[in-house]
Amino acid sequence: MKTIKNTLQKYYVDFVLALPGLLFLTTFFVAPIIAMFIVSFTRWPIIGNPTFVGIRNYYRLFSDEFFLKALKNTLYYTLILVPSIISFSFLLALLLRNITRGKEFFKAIYLFPMVVTLTSTAAIWKGLYLPFGPLNQLLVKLGLRPIEFLSVELVIPSLCLVLIWRDIGYYALYFLAGLEEIPPEILEAATIDGAGAFHRFRYIVLPIMKPVTLLVSVLVTIGSFMIFTLVYVITAGGPAYSSQALLNYIYDTGWKEFRMGYAAAAAMIYFIILFALSMAQKLVIKHE
Amino acid sequence: MNKKKAALYLIAMGWAIIIVLPYLWALRISLIPTYTTFVSFFPKSFSELSLVNYEYLLFRTPFLRWMLNSAIISATATLLNVIISSMLGYVLARKRLPGTNVIFLAILALLMIPYHILVVALYLGLSKVRLTNNLLGVILPLSANPFGVFFMRQYITMIPSDYEEAALVDGCSRLGALFRVVLPQALPAVGVLAVTMFMETWNNFIIPLVIISRESLKTVTVGIADLAFQTLNVNWGVLMAGSLLGAMPTVLVFVLFNQYFLRGLKLHGGLK
């Protein structure tokens, strides 16, 4: 009895301090994951009660052309975004590295779109991409033909362009931090030894930048899988589902068709893919 | 050499202009009283500009209400998150309670899960307890952000516990030691966390979108999306005015707390 009382006294403060955080995280993070897993085996049309259907939701998802389309689109977004954001933000970081005066000013400007609410940015680009909007007016003025930015073929690259424009200033900061870690003595020594600019870049800068590059690729991949707001505001997934991302599909299934069980199953698959991806990338980073 | 420098500055300026132009265009559109975007970029005269779109936005749409809702949600969720994160982070850092290592590992695992996928379950759960169409239904899930706990734990681990123990020896209570000795030293971390959380909660879209459908309870992000999807004709002037005003709070926080924000970003990783 006394030992229990002693332990209680010993841990009382820590326990009370930890409790709110643990409660919040279990209620609003852990419990929803478990609930989603259970709901994914049910048919749940919001109004009314769920009925257990086993793995039918999963089975049906893999022959659901809209789900597969959303999955394919999400991969398409990722395949465009990862290499382009990495290369452009790396270039931007090199640019910032070679600037001395006004560096902080440029950094702040480049980061600015990251700070603006994504819905606002999306609304603005929705206007820029209008058939007779400013971008096309500019193209006509330059003597070029207007482009239908949000057509079936071009909609995903166009939406990616917005994200590239928005994000490279932010990811450049990662590369810049990496570049600033390279000791200038190494580069000087290499120059004295007769290494040209290209060789210095290829054999000194690039290997040092590899961990940062991997980290950015992880972040951009996860970011690409979380695309939702931009698509929702600019195209609502259209035209003809050609820009529908996975999260937009889950939202439409749950909140437009009111099929909660099915939406939960889609979310579970999305969760598994994302988890596998980040695990794989973690392994690669560790391996490095 | 100087030519090279000049070229670099030219490119840097060029990209800065490309970043700023869309926002300037939005400002331009928000200042003309028409429904189209068919305007030349530079106004021919200042009499051409007008504030009717802002007037319409503020007095004939629930925009002010949306701003207020966003402010309530962001402020409360940020405050809640900072409080629970500091307390739990402190316990995890000092490792006095048994099982803290397991809890910390669990939090690391949670960090890998994007909250976006929780929306289905969150919606079902919150509607069971009648918290949909309620600001609390947005505040509570947003404040349960494992990043805060992780961040505070990492920071407090770096603070030596010597001062704290000295305070305890001098007769200070454990709680007193936390609030008077540890937290003052962790103030920079609290600042970074508060700024990051405020940005995230203000910019959040999917949670208020699914939890709230009543017009008077919507956040400004969802409101802007509504303006962009009016059934008849999108009123571009009003939409651009709303987009610019709706982004003001986070821009202001960025301008005021630039350094905090940068540090937070570095540690946090992608926010979409």
Short description:
The complex is a heterodimer of chains A (288) and B (272). Chain A is mainly alpha-helical.
Describe this structure in words.
The complex is a heterodimer of chains A (288) and B (272). Chain A has 12 helices and 2 strands. Chain A has 288 residues and is an all-alpha fold. In chain A, strand 1 (42-43) and strand 2 form a beta hairpin. In chain A, helix 3 packs parallel to helix 7 (155-180), helix 9 packs antiparallel against helix 12 (260-287) and helix 11 (246-255) packs antiparallel against helix 12 (260-287). The N and C termini of chain A lie far apart (53 Å). Chain B is mainly α and 272 residues long. Chain B is built from 14 helices and no strands. In chain B, helix 2 crosses helix 13 (236-256). The longest helix of chain B is centred in the first third of the chain and has 32 residues, at 63-94. The two termini of chain B are 40 Å apart. The chains are: A mainly alpha (288), B mainly alpha (272). Chains A and B meet through helix 1, helix 3, helix 4, helix 5 and helix 7 of A and helix 1, helix 3, helix 4, helix 5 and helix 6 of B.
